[in-house]
Amino acid sequence: MHFKHAILFVLLVAESSVVHGFTTSFPQSKLGHPTTTTVTCTHHAKVSNKEEEEDRPYRANLFQNDKLSRRNAIKSATIAATAGLNAELAWRNAVHTAAFALENTTPDTTNILPPGALQTIEAGKAVIIPNWLTPSETSAICQDVQQCFQDGHFTNFILSRNPNKVDKAANDRWIMPSFSKNRDGTNGPFVDPTIGNYELRHSLKLKMAQVKALLAKEMYDRPTLADDTQTHEMEYLRYGQGALLARHVDEHHLELKRPNGSKLPLKPNASRRSITWLIYLNDDWDGEVDGGQLRLHERQFDSVSYVGARKNDLQVGWLKAFQEKGEQPVFLDPNREGPENETCMLYTIDGSGNKRDLSTKPFANIALYLAGGDKVARSLMVSNGEDAKRLHLIDAPKSLVSSLKTKAGPAEGEDGGERIRDIVPKAGTLVMFDSVSLPHEVLMTNRERFGVQGWFHEKIYT
């Protein structure tokens, strides 16, 4: 988007914001210099319920929508957009610089990720790296997270779930994102240099830029991870007592986001989540007592082919490992030749790289069939009987079919080929996995938990 076009867009959105009573946020980011700050972050630093009650009115005041005049709203949104364009460009340049260094030198990359880490992700599993951050780094970041939360720079995350709902402020999931406005509308709080220990956050951002560049260089068919037009989500994370997050995947095929989504116009430089990462910060966490584990629903066996996507054909399922046949990813191609509205085709790729369609002809929008879970998908989208028995959807949507199921056995969408793997959120641990192929959840947290999370993006091809 050209600069003048961006400003015009901002003015239109700002005017709309005044009419509907809200203000608009824009992606932000800035550059600074690393620091060596070291502090202590321990169990006793958690916030008491009394402190939460006292602090809640102040924090709520920070998040309520400003009542701005039309002129002030336009001015505020314009400042936010121009600052965001420059700041986001700076972040992309950091990744681009790191990628250039990897391409033109032969550095020792084991200090970034251990050998075999990328292959683990490509096989559909999560990489767990304890002590990826030093204790001093972890303590400093944890202290910054806590201070930023106390200062009111976090936003409640609507997709989380706390069944107790006793105190939403104290007992839910909160984030401090890169890409949202702060009080004056000029920057997202994570990248605002006036908030907390900005130099420390910038140092972490440069470290993650190195990781992103290494993934782009070494992983199969993900070169646009290092493209300087791609973005990167990065944010602080806080779970309150009782908070949890239900099973989900972090990215879906365009056809599953909205009807015929693959055929709708895309914004310039459109991107999607490719790699999910998390860093844990609490230094005295006991999974048995404190809960809050990351539960991964991994396949029992490694994939015989690279998981995630083939360009815009994102993975939607698996062919379960059977006898001598290994676990095979199933992808959706929404652009096959066929009658109107019947252009979707499932296909798989075996261990030799051979592509094979799973049905004899294209079918209509996949969301219609996925709503019925594995059973409906096997009946309507796969022609070969053996393939149908092996087909399993990565994360079948809840449906009337699944709610009416009374027969004893695994829940709808589970074929017995998954294994549960619980990760205790210990300080300094880095977790990384493919955003498309690995369902996961967060178990109920019994005390306050802090972390950093993000998603590396890659290009959506047009």
UniProtKB/TrEMBL annotation:
Pfam families, A to Z: 2OG-FeII_Oxy_3
Signal peptide: 1-21
UniProt keyword terms in alphabetical order: Signal, Vitamin C
Keyword Signal: yes
Prolyl 4-hydroxylase alpha subunit Fe(2+) 2OG dioxygenase domain boundaries: 235-314
Superkingdom as given in the UniProt entry: Eukaryota
Gene Ontology biological process terms, A to Z: cellular response to hypoxia
GO molecular function, one term: L-ascorbic acid binding
Protein name according to UniProt: Prolyl 4-hydroxylase alpha subunit Fe(2+) 2OG dioxygenase domain-containing protein
UniProt organism field: Ditylum brightwellii
